[in-house]
Amino acid sequence: MSSDYYEILGVSRDAGPDEIKKAYRRKAREMHPDVSDDPDAAAKFKDVNNAYEVLSDPQKRDMYDRGGDPYGNGGMGGNGGFGGFGGGATGGFDFTNLVDAMFGQQSSRGPRPRTRRGQDALVRMGLELAEAAFGVTKPISVDTAVVCPRCNGSGSEDGSKPVTCNTCRGAGEVTHIQRSFIGDIRTTQACPTCNGYGSVLPNPCVECSGDGRVRSTRTITVKVPAGVSTGNRIHLANHGEVGPGGGPAGDLYVELNVAPHEVFKRDGDNLEMVVKLPMTAAALGTELDIPTLEADLPDADAESKTVTLDVPAGTQSGTRIAIDGAGVPKLRSGGRGQLGVTLLVQTPTRLDDRQRELLRQLAEVREETRPEGTVQKHGRGVFGRLRDAFANQ
């Protein structure tokens, strides 16, 4: 392979640092002995590494451009064997760069900031059906990170400023050298002394241990719009976890869970209920005062808490009568769904002598003393409503 470092990486002599790094990653992926099938892959990979070691360092690159060779051996390394991997911290192989090259990722470089945005938080709120249908404003307790009240987020006990870490010299990371059969391998990790910040707090806050935030339970008032259902989420910006160093708070998401109702069953924007009525009322027809969902609201008008249902004569068990505009308000749009009332006709089980005689006379008049049952074909209409009605009892 050519000893011209620019030619090895495939870049021009005026290539910038980003272009050189991108070319190195591409070549490293192609030439790495564990990836390439080329029998000379090890030697070519050594040349790629040497070329990058020189061209990525401004001083070495300037020396090379002036006709010199930082390695003193035509760019082929001065350690023998896999020359570009030896030579201590300066001429050694940076394992982090290899990982970046192999997986197309770029590791973070330099210290991380002490002040960062906090994470988003998720809490759950339980609602009654009426609260979900008509909306409600109610408080909720949230356990999240808040700004430390002692240091106001600075992390310092006496308000002092952070000082440069003596271990990493402000770099936020340290390099370890490990010897292997291919030479010295360097790995870079966050500085254990400053945890990657590049600086340390000389007198950290005793309340938050220098983090600038503490855990606390606070109460937030949540406004729930009308028409929500289980699984809907309310987004509250800047009400989540406060970030490290007193950084800006993340967002809070309130997930809603609507409890089942003992009378009404919700079906989208519709409400369904089952009403039992006597056999005679179903035969003769009647009017029923049906409770509405507004009956669960303590401040609702008395007139809105019931609605009159007109039951026509001859109503059969399983009949559903719909009342428009008495269901759940539609979320993000006007109007309301239906209130569906399924009627169950009750046959009397306890009769006195007079009632039994009157029914016997009615049967004789209707010629039903020995009726023949009528076989009905299966249908999803009446049978389906009856099945649902009995299931909701």
From TrEMBL:
GO CC aspect terms: cytoplasm
One GO biological process term: protein refolding
First and last residues of every CXXCXGXG motif repeat: 148-155, 165-172, 191-198, 205-212
Compartments, as annotated in UniProt: Cytoplasm
Positions of Zn(2+) 2 binding: C165, C168, C191, C194
Zinc finger (CR-type): 135-217
Binding, Zn(2+) 1: C148, C151, C205, C208
Keywords for this protein: Chaperone, Cytoplasm, DNA replication, Metal-binding, Repeat, Stress response, Zinc, Zinc-finger
The protein's required cofactors: Zn(2+)
Domain J stretches: 4-68
GO molecular function, one term: zinc ion binding
Cofactor binding summary note: Binds 2 Zn(2+) ions per monomer.
InterPro entries tied to this protein: DnaJ, DnaJ_C, DnaJ_domain, DnaJ_domain_CS, HSP40/DnaJ_pept-bd, HSP_DnaJ_Cys-rich_dom, HSP_DnaJ_Cys-rich_dom_sf, J_dom_sf
Coarse class of the protein's main subcellular location: cytoplasm
Function: Participates actively in the response to hyperosmotic and heat shock by preventing the aggregation of stress-denatured proteins and by disaggregating proteins, also in an autonomous, DnaK-independent fashion. Unfolded proteins bind initially to DnaJ; upon interaction with the DnaJ-bound protein, DnaK hydrolyzes its bound ATP, resulting in the formation of a stable complex. GrpE releases ADP from DnaK; ATP binding to DnaK triggers the release of the substrate protein, thus completing the reaction cycle.
Oligomer status and interactors: Homodimer.
Record-linked HAMAP family: DnaJ (MF_01152)
Family: Belongs to the DnaJ family.
Domain free text: The J domain is necessary and sufficient to stimulate DnaK ATPase activity. Zinc center 1 plays an important role in the autonomous, DnaK-independent chaperone activity of DnaJ. Zinc center 2 is essential for interaction with DnaK and for DnaJ activity.
Protein name, UniProt field: Chaperone protein DnaJ
Organism ancestry: Bacteria, Bacillati, Actinomycetota, Actinomycetes, Propionibacteriales
